[in-house]
Amino acid sequence: MRAHPSRGTSGNRRRILAALSVTLLCSTGVTALPAAARSADAPAADRAATATGRAPAIPGVPRVPDGLALTPPMGFNNWNSTHCRAEFNEAMIKSIADIMVDKGLKAAGYEYVNLDDCWASPKRDANGKLVPHPQRFPNGIKAVADYVHSKGLKFGIYTSAGTRTCDSTGLPGALGHEFSDARQFAEWGVDYLKYDNCNNEGVDAKKRYTTMRDALRATGRPIVYSICEWGENKPWEWAGDLGHLWRTTWDIKDKWQALLPILKKNLKLAKYAGPGRWNDPDMLEVGNGGMTDTEYRTHFSLWAMMAAPLLIGTDLRKATPQTYEILGNREVIALDQDPLGKQGTVVKSGGSRWTVVKRLANGDRAVALFNEADHPQRITTTAKDVGLPKAGGYRLRDVWKHRDFHSAGTISATVPAHGTVVFRVSPSKRWAAFPPAIEAGTDRAVLVEEGDSHDVKTTVGNLGRTPAQDVRTRFDAPEGWRVEARSPATARVLPGGRTLRTSWRITPPEDAAPGSYELTLTTTYRAPDGEPITQTLPVPSPIVVPPPDGTPYASDLPFVYTDNYLGPVERDASVGGAKAGDGVPLSIGGVRYAKGLGTHATSEVRFYTGEQCSVFRAQVGVDDETGTQGSVAFEVWADGRQVAQSPRLTGADGPASLTADIEDAREVRLVTTMGEDNYAFDHSDWGDARFEC
User: Fold this and answer.
1) Phi, psi of 529, deg, nearest 5
2) 261, CA 20 to 30 Å: which among 4, 501, 508, 587?
3) Burial degree of 222 (CB within 10 A; 0-12, 13-18, 19+)
4) pLDDT for the residue 468
5) Quick check: is 117 catalytic?
6) To 5 degrees, how large is the angle CA 328–CA 332–CA 336?
7) What tens digit of pLDDT does each residue of 61-73 get?
8) What mean pLDDT comes out for the span 7-19?
9) Strand (E) or helix (H) holding 415
10) What average pLDDT does range 625-639 have in this prediction?
11) Cβ contacts of residue 507 below 8 Å, gap of 6+?
């Protein structure tokens, strides 16, 4: 929960990086705190613990036994929807508790109602105790916790392993006050603690988080311990002995390009997760408005596949029915909460296609087919590849459609842009009782040149062993568009293992302007018992201007598609901040560029080249507006193939030349990816970017 350093709004990271030297107390293994942390108002018990490294004894209270968070915690946290704005208060939290019960979220498994930063007053009292904010929580924290408990829910709270929390107001952190604060939390009835990492005075992370673990255990109250260390010191390697979950990455944002690097980093850490010890890729953004419902379903699906904590981050008082449908999907939740506790692993990836598999307690496999691209793609695997034994047939349970199909062994779908299809797969002797799985899709993205027609092919494949009957496929297009099937689009019977292939000609109206449009591919068929089944696939179908000629600059060409972590992609200027046009002239390593593109990793810019261009060239690097900070790699993709990649470049590096062979490519994508640190300062420039056509 940190302000974005690129915007210059927080000095926390700079203070943290300027780490202080620490003295280890070898007899106890704890860290001596800097003077700033050993404040005079720290309670005597905390001063004693700091000096001796021993937790103060609580007469008659044994240490808390293990056994908490045997499945990933589920609940609500206000931060992603309110931050520290005024609407975060007692009334909101009570309303959320009511809604969680009334809307069935409690029954679906959500149990924690957690406060984040800004619940406290700026100063402790004369005894060094935390004081609830008098306007936000006029009746105190215990009254709120009691209300939450009265609903059959559990209550969580937040503080930081530093002298202050992350908010710029300067609210008190727990460093040097761990035992006093933990006692206070226990007295209030806290069941869950999120322990952040801001203003930590350079004290060793493991020592800070160990001290709070000991303080929580000393209270005698079972409290789930969430270590929010941002992944800076690889907590997955050591935090399993301290807490129940640990943040693996920087903060999530409600943007597609912010979600992707968090997902990719967390996917690599599957071996560290298990009952009572979970990788935490941060809270959910579902419903906050920055992504589409398709992207939110992907977000929710893949967090469940990764056995991640599911902490709702939207204001449930304002949530749409679609948001409740996603958050309340009990079949997806069951994958997350599976008692075996296995995090899903990547069995195959490439070309923006991902296959993630999660082993379940009853032997089933959850299989997620994730399409990172901005157009539909076929993603396929087999029962053998996901670890299932050989069988005559397999049951495929689509956990979003809530229905069963069967397959002879292929697990496949044409997945919409940024979408995820999730099957629960098992060998079944009753496979013939389920209709055959049908996969319908297009061969490539539909790009229509202005004033022209476009030919596209579709396939409808029967993945099962029984025939599909009365198969029909059609394209639904915007008003005024003409869609002509140039080969059969129906089949009276489609046997198992067979495919219906159809060629189409798509013609937009002559006066249709370039821009984004969408077709829908609809396929209907009947199962052997006569049951009608319908599948739909949205197909983005932009109208594009004819391809360029000569040697045009990229900044002078129309974009087919853009996605940028911070603000819009800028033409002939750096990305600047979140607003359009707030950048400065492009500059890399002191070299100025009058022409080019300013982006912020992670980003993507797509161009239509119509098989008319041969080479793309650019001078790439991190813009000088970030100083020496930032860490970015640049990639060029042609029709789904990576054709050029830069080394990882930082703000301390000069410009690097990037040349890509794009001969015969219909589309070219310019992509930036962030370094292993985080997204901060990743202002990525494509200087003098131009095509040879």
Assistant:
1) -85, 5
2) 587
3) middle
4) 96
5) no
6) 110
7) 333 346 899 999 9
8) 32
9) strand 410-415
10) 94
11) 448, 452, 453, 454, 481, 482, 483, 484
Supply φ then ψ for residue 41, to 5 degrees.
Answer: -85, 0
| Residues 321, 326, 332: CA angle, nearest 5 degrees | 150
**Catalytic residue among 191, 196, 338, 563, which?**
196
Q: What is the pLDDT of residue 32?
A: 35
Q: What are phi and psi of 63, to 5 degrees?
A: -65, 150
Give the length of the chain.
693
Flag whether pLDDT at 9 surpasses 50. no
- Cα distances (Å, whole numbers) of residue 632 to 261, 267, 583, 636, 650: 12, 20, 18, 14, 6
- Which amino acid, one-letter code, is at 352? S
Which value, to the nearest 10 degrees, does the dihedral of the CA atoms of residues 590, 570, 416, 383 take?
10
Outline where DSSP puts E strands in 372-409.
Answer: 377-382, 394-398, 403-407
Rounded to whole angstroms, how far apart are CA atoms 344 and 304? 9
Widest pairwise Cα distance in the chain: 84
Instruction: Work out the average pLDDT over 201-219.
Output: 97
**352 Cα distance to chain centroid:** 15
Helix or strand or coil: residue 98? helix
Q: How far is CA 552 from CA 513, 560, 580, 595, 693, in A?
A: 22, 16, 23, 11, 8
Say how far apart CA 283 and CA 266 lie, in whole Å.
13
Cα dihedral value 379, 381, 386, 388, nearest 10? 140
Q: Is 685 left (phi over 0), alpha (psi -120 to 50) or beta?
A: beta
Buried b (16+ CB within 10 A) or exposed e, 630-647: bbbbbbbbbbbeebbebe
**What is the model's pTM?**
0.89
Tokens of 117: 């930063």
Question: 34: pLDDT confidence band, cut at 50, 70 and 90?
Answer: very low
Average pLDDT in the 153-158 region?
A: 98
Active site residue 66: no
Asked if the bond preceding 602 is cis, omega within 30° of 0, the reply is yes
* Active-site residue, from 251, 282, 338, 563: 251
* Whether 442 contacts 458, CB under 8 Å: yes
Tens digit of each residue's pLDDT (9 = 90 or more) over 642-654: 999 999 999 999 9
Residue 208 CA to residue 214 CA, distance in Å, equals 10
